[in-house]
Amino acid sequence: MPAGRLGGPVSGPVPDRELARPAPLRTRRARAQMHARPGQSTSHHTGWHEQPRALGVGRRATIHPMTTRRDPRQTHVRPRPPSTGRPAPVKVRPRAPAPTRLSVHRPIQRDRGLPIIAKVGLLAAIALLGLTVLYVGAGGLGNAVSGIGAALGGFITNITTAPTPRPSVAVVSDSPSLQQPAEPYTAEATVDLVVTVPSEAVGDPNSRLRVYLALKDQDPAPIQEAPLASTPQTVIPVELTKGINDFTVTIVGPGGESDPSPVVRYVLDQAPAKVTIYSPEEGAVVNGPTVEISGKTQARSTLIVRNAANGSSTSGVAGTDGLFTISLGISTGTNEITITATDPAGNAKDWILTVRRGSGALTVVLGSSDYKLSVDDLPQDLTLTAVASDPDGKPLVGADLTFTLSIPGIPTVTQEVQTDDQGKATFTTAVPVGADPGQGSATVLLSSEEFGSTQDYTVITIDP
């Protein structure tokens, strides 16, 4: 029986085309096993084999692999790819998990469909589509078409219309500042405002300074404008109104008007201060080497006091309440004193006060509650009273007085007392039984470090 293409029996004659058909490709190991002799190992027959015997005569047919015209190598041999200069990857056998390691398997992620929000949105879209269909069916098709046309026309207009350029934004300058005067009161009708502007506004030709004036109980009002100087400071002369003048300044430029500056106040006062003398009175007699002048004038006024009789002078300043007290030396006889008061605005006026220095001295006057006592009325209280005055006749406060009482037949009694704010002092004692009829006396002695000392006495009689 003739052999087939793979060595198996065939029935009938074998056509020539069957003999000429090349054998199918097999692996190297399969070909070696097919061509090996009986009892021979195939481990060394991977690259060659003996020719089998021909069909029908006890031998196998030898079928050589086909080759191409360009490459004499066998077609079943895979050509080696061109080298890229990199080493071939090393095949690494995956490591089996160790017995102590747990194998972690990732759960299979299954798609749960659309989220709830998407489903709700889909339902809303379907409902909206249904309402649209009903609206169009009810006759709203024309309105819908006109609305779409208007929207489309507006869109086209927006695209084709040239954009309007945005206006440039001008920056408003910071507020200027005004120099505060050393003395707000002035007698001058014109003053200079010294304005300091920010550095970015110095010499700006497009900006101006605007001056505002606020009088008493009135709102600020613009009164004048001035250009900015080429230096940070600009001097602006302004006219004053009698009384309070509150000034503020702003910068007016392309960006608008700045905030006002802090307020600067000027007070126009052209009337001289009035002086009121409380003491001494005009033509008063002063028993002492100095006179103390007290009175009231405008607050913070300066006073200069001069005595033409002896050439002495002194000065002082009235307090915030306008009160003042000034001492000046005087000479014997008449003293004409000139008081010059100058208010903060600079207005000055003279006032004349005339006093006369007298020859008066320190005085004390003693009195008693009783000047005659009867022996039959003893014992009886007796009160002595003394009033002390300085050389000007004013009460001498805090002066030391010594009372002495001498009655016939009893010991002399002595007591020291100080005068009160009225210059008065009292002493009370009892005349005991045993006093002899006759004439006694009571004496008081006044001592002062400034004015010296003096005394007074009176007679006390004891009747039988």
Written account of the structure:
- With 464 residues, the protein is mainly beta.
- The protein has four domains: 1-69, no CATH class; 177-268, Immunoglobulins (Immunoglobulin-like, Sandwich), CATH 2.60.40.10; 276-357, Immunoglobulin-like (Sandwich); 363-463, Sandwich (Immunoglobulin-like), CATH 2.60.40.1930.
- Helix content is 12%, strand content 36%.
- It has three helices and 25 strands.
- The strands form six sheets. Strands 2, 4, 5, 7, 8 and 9 form a six-stranded mixed beta sheet that branches. Strands 11-17-16-13-14 form a five-stranded mixed beta sheet, with no helix packed on it.
- The chain is elongated.
- Mean pLDDT is 78; it is low at 1-12, 14-20 and 41-58.
Provide the descriptors you would attach to this structure in a database record:
Immunoglobulin-like, elongated, 464 residues, mainly beta, 4 domains, six-stranded mixed sheet, five-stranded mixed sheet
